[in-house]
Amino acid sequence: MKVLIIGGCGFIGSHVVDRLLAQGMSLRVLDRRAEQFRPPLPGVEYVMCDLADTAQIYEALAGVDAVVHLASTTVPATSNLDPVSDIQGNLITMVRLLEVMRQAGVRKMVYLSSGGTVYGVPQSDPVREDHPLNPISSYGIVKVAIENYLFMEHKLHGLDYVALRASNPYGPRQGHTGIQGLIGTHLWRLARKEQIEVWGDGSVVRDFIHVGDLAELCHRALASGVSGNFNAGSGEGASVAEVVQKICTTVGGDVTPIYKPGRNFDVPRVVLDVSKAKRELGWQKTICLDQGIADTWAWVQEQVG
């Protein structure tokens, strides 16, 4: 199988590349910039361009059997600042991509959606895939719209797709901008002897999934013959305060965060029910939160040192 990985030079994408290479797949990576933390990999074809460049997208799809789409121009914290840009950079580019894929005869896609935002404020715990979709951020609204276009393409034009509603991925190679990624941001700050910041009182609960487990789920989704939406999380919740405590244990010593006002787009608790992925894709997480934080801390120290 030859696979085009859109966003393959990013945090999650780099791990998906590793996983699919290990499975012997032929890979072409499309991204706007090279990987931040390592040089290009031998045997991987790289195409540097923007998703808005339809002509180059068509060329990148030549000879491809499937697409893994992991790219996003926004994160939940920034999407509400400019919803028009969010729509243009993500929804419109996806609709154009689906048209070009149809013209090129590529009929399989794995898409990275968002389990943390598409449901809005959950009415049940844990949250199953059939939960109502009531997002309260532009990021989540666009993800839901893209899922709907994937379903339409499936029904009308035979696209096989899996939308993975990922919770909060973390792990090695996560950047240190501080815009997204609670665990990575905290560990980078501590490695640089900086104080960490917590939005709200630390009671917000999230479901954290190690990027290695998410990459394996991408592989299983790609290899499967199923279509639909799947939660991608650990199935367990941890509060921000609990994560800070686990980081304290890993790093050694007390960590005193700076507490900042809570954000109105942060829902109080999201824990994903991942039984569908286990049942239909034969997948389950293998890396617990304590181990994952320790692995990530070891990697961050290597980068800072």
UniProtKB/TrEMBL annotation:
It comes from the Bacteria. SUPFAM superfamilies: NAD(P)-binding Rossmann-fold domains (SSF51735). CDD domains: UDP_G4E_5_SDR_e. InterPro entries: Epimerase_deHydtase (IPR001509), NAD(P)-bd_dom_sf (IPR036291). Pathway: Carbohydrate metabolism; galactose metabolism. Residues 3-233 form the NAD-dependent epimerase/dehydratase domain. Belongs to the NAD(P)-dependent epimerase/dehydratase family. PANTHER family: UDP-ARABINOSE 4-EPIMERASE 1, UDP-GLUCOSE 4-EPIMERASE. This is UDP-glucose 4-epimerase. It comes from Phaeobacter gallaeciensis.
